[in-house]
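Lab notebook, design round three. We kept the backbone fixed and only want residue identities now. Task for the bench partner: fill in a sequence for the structure below.
Input structure tokens:
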């Protein structure tokens, strides 16, 4: 099979540049387009040079429709509004869309799922192998322990991150909720301030820290009487997310239209 021709959305950003570099190092994948927001000062610049590589002749463009005419997939770590616009074009073109964007609303999620009858979408709050294994473990532990164990999700990221809780924290919270057989939207506690009263049994709490250059630290705490179980993952380099996203794209190329997650890519669906 020929190399998978991939477009990187947000190619001028930190994650986009990492993706460009990762694709250049991945057998079976080749960069065919670099997308950037309209009005960006980086439009027209060489994607390879921006990623710290030799020039590759692929200039940053704001026109996904044009870029996608000869592509097999797009990898998208951008912002919700951009991802929603991109998913419509990817679906029209019939190409794979890997979405690592966080901060998506319930209505955004509904739009993404609406195209999956005809499009292949892989979406995850985190593309790393370790985090997805962690989510599988969280689901299993939550299923095994009753409400005598309180669940708290703690996360820390760099000071430039614009959404909270992180997509990964929410993914871990969803895993815990599935293990417990409840809806996260009905049992999550995002803010505690002032006189809050006692903790309600069965709630899933979130705590958010921001500072420095932290790539991503996540811990899920199961706190019981006189004992505590902590499951953690610490990311040292965002390249691990790029590696997972490219792996997801290559996997998705051979799938039927539908909505997939990294758990599907890694074969963790029944864990």
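Proposed sequence:
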């Amino acid at each position: 099979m020929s190399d998978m021709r991939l477009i990187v959305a947000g190619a001028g950003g930190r994650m986009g540049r990492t993706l460009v570099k990762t694709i250049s190092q991945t057998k079976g994948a080749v960069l065919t387009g670099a997308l950037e927001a309209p009005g960006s000062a980086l439009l027209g610049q060489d994607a390879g040079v921006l990623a710290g590589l030799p020039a590759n002749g692929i200039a940053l463009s704001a026109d996904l429709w044009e870029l996608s005419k000869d592509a097999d997939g797009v990898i998208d770590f951008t912002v919700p509004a951009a991802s929603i616009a991109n998913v419509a074009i990817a679906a029209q073109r019939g190409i794979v869309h890997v979405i690592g964007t966080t901060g998506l609303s319930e209505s955004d999620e509904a739009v993404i799922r609406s195209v999956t009858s005809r499009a292949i979408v892989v979406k995850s709050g985190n593309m790393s192998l370790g985090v997805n294994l962690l989510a599988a473990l969280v689901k299993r532990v939550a299923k095994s322990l009753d409400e005598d164990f309180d669940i708290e999700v703690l996360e820390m990221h760099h000071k430039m991150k614009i959404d909270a809780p992180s997509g990964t924290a929410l993914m871990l919270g969803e895993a815990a909720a599935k293990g417990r057989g409840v809806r996260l939207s009905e049992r999550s506690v995002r803010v505690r301030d002032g006189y809050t009263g006692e903790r309600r049994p069965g709630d899933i709490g979130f705590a958010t820290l921001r500072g420095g250059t932290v790539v991503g630290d996540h811990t899920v705490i199961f706190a019981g009487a006189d004992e505590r179980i902590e499951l953690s993952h610490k990311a040292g380099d965002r390249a691990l997310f790029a590696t997972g996203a490219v792996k997801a794209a290559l996997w998705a190329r051979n799938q039927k239209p539908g909505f997939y997650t990294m758990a599907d890519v890694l074969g963790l669906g029944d864990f």
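Keep this in mind before ordering anything: The radius of gyration is 19 Å.
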